[in-house]
Amino acid sequence: MRSIKALVFVLSSLLGLAPAARAAVLPFEGTLEVRIGGADSLFAITTTAAGSAFAQVNGSGAAGHLQSLEVGAGAFDSGVVEVPLTDPAAAPFVGMQLDVENQAGSFSGTGGAGFGGAMPLAGSFRLCTYPAPCMSAVNNLVVPLTVVGHASTHTQVGALNLTVVGAPWTTGTVAVGSLTAMGGVGPLSNTGAPSGTVTLVTPIFISTNLTNAVVPSFATMSLHFVPEPTTLTLLGAALVGVGALGRSRLR
């Protein structure tokens, strides 16, 4: 009976069900998407990342809602990603280019819709009027991303006056005009455990001197927490032990 209890404790610890004495560094796989023009827009580029985040769950490294999350600078770094646009609906643009890197991010809350914070981005999203390389065109639309992910405003004056307004990230719902984007966490009762997910969204308000309308745009960051290889090994050994104990009791 003691052996069974010990194995149950090991399994609970590995799955994030047992209390821990301190906050944990959680390895993650993630995606960062920047979308200009709303959910149905053609103008969206996604970049991926693998790294780790420093997390506190219910005041410790145990299971439950995340209370705080720290994502280091450079966790997402797309380099220069260029994507052609072949749909005639995208005219006059024939390509798009993303060059983005995140700055350090700090998030906190009670889980669910109450979780959020600031993580500024650096770089730009470029809509190209000339085939690759995108940089060769002089009349591209370049959206600076430095204000995205925190409360900030950027205005540039030229042939096209452009204003970009950013806001913090949230796991709740954000809106630009009538369009919305929604974040979330899962599972609700154990977000910080391996296979837990956090999706944060932030609105991007883009306006020009050509129209009074705001272009509805969004950035989305999704983190999927994954167990370290050593944790997987221990988990496998524990499961084998449970199976062996079950067979011995049947005998």
Would you give an account of this structure?
With 251 residues, the protein is mostly beta strands. It has one domain. The protein has helices at 2-14, 229-250; strands at residues 24-36, 43-57, 66-71, 77-84, 95-102, 105-108, 116-118, 121-128, 141-144, 153-156, 162-165, 169-170, 173-176, 179-182, 184-186, 197-208, 211-225. The strands form three sheets. Strands 1, 2, 3, 6, 7, 10, 11, 12, 15, 16 and 17 form an eleven-stranded antiparallel β-sheet that branches. A four-stranded antiparallel β-sheet has the order 4-5-8-9, with no helix packed on it. Strands 13-14 form a two-stranded antiparallel sheet. Helix 1 (2-14) runs antiparallel to helix 2. It is elongated and about 50 Å long. 29% of the residues are buried. The model is unreliable at 4-22 and 229-247 (pLDDT under 50).
What structural category characterises the helix and strand content?
mainly beta
- List the uncertain runs: 4-22, 229-247
**Span of the ends, CA to CA:** 16 Å
Count of individual beta strands: 17
Topology readout:
Blueprint lengths: L1 H13 L9 E13 L6 E15 L8 E6 L5 E8 L10 E8 L2 E4 L7 E3 L2 E8 L12 E4 L8 E4 L5 E4 L3 E2 L2 E4 L2 E4 L1 E3 L10 E12 L2 E15 L3 H22 L1
Antiparallel strand pairs: 1-2, 1-17, 2-3, 3-6, 4-5, 5-8, 6-7, 7-12, 8-9, 10-11, 11-16, 13-14, 15-16, 16-17
Helix pairs in contact: 1-2
What is this entry, summarized?
The protein is mostly beta strands and 251 residues long. It has helices spanning 2-14, 229-250; strands spanning 24-36, 43-57, 66-71, 77-84, 95-102, 105-108, 116-118, 121-128, 141-144, 153-156, 162-165, 169-170, 173-176, 179-182, 184-186, 197-208, 211-225.
